[in-house]
Amino acid sequence: MSRIARVDFAWGGGIVALALGATFARQLGYIDGDTVIRLAVGVNGLLIAYYGNRMPKALAPSASARRVNRVGGWAMVLSGLVYAGLFAFAPIPVAVAVGSGAILTGLAATLGYSLWLRAGARAV
Question: How far apart are the C-alpha atoms of 84 and 15, rounded to whole Å?
Answer without folding.
Answer: 14
